[in-house]
Amino acid sequence: MNKYLLVIIIKPEELDKYIEIHKNAGKKLLEDVRSCGFLNESAWIYKNLSIVYFETNKSYDECNKFLRSKQSCKQWDKIVIPLFEESPIFADKIFDLNEQLSKFVF
Questions:
Q1: How far apart are the C-alpha atoms of 89 and 14, rounded to whole Å?
Q2: For the segment 75-89, what is each residue's pLDDT rounded down to a tens digit?
Q3: pLDDT tens digits, 19-70
Q4: What is the dihedral of CA 17, 64, 31, 56, to 10 degrees?
Q5: Which residues contact 9 (CB under 8 A, 6 or more apart)?
Q6: Cβ pair 77, 18 in contact under 8 A
Q7: Which one-letter DSSP state was computed for residue 29?
């Protein structure tokens, strides 16, 4: 399972709009997110940071390329991307409990 954490800085004055649009995502977009290969996607807000977690059995790039080809995503991007203060970045994983525990023999 591939896991990704994306961090997006949202313009502070657009935060309410960003949150609201995520609470009302359309069914077609949600179906396209699932059909592209994302098995799970969750988003959190902390101050003006959107923290988005993805799980997939494919690569993020493969899923994202498929998703970005869908009309539902193109419409979503037209609304959401202007709310970003900066381009999204992937967080670097520095700790994983299961990976750490696997180093020890029990």
A1: 19
A2: 999 999 999 999 999
A3: 999 999 999 999 999 999 999 999 999 999 999 999 999 999 999 999 999 9
A4: -110
A5: 48, 49, 50, 84, 85, 86
A6: no
A7: H
Strands across the sheet containing 89-90: 38-46, 49-56, 2-9, 89-90
- Determine contact, residues 54/38, Cβ cutoff 8 Å: yes
Question: Rounded to whole angstroms, how far apart are CA atoms 40 and 55?
Answer: 5
**Angle at 16 (CA atoms; ends 13, 64), nearest 5 degrees:** 100
Q: What amino acid is encoded at 81 in this protein?
A: I
Structure tokens at 94: 């520095």
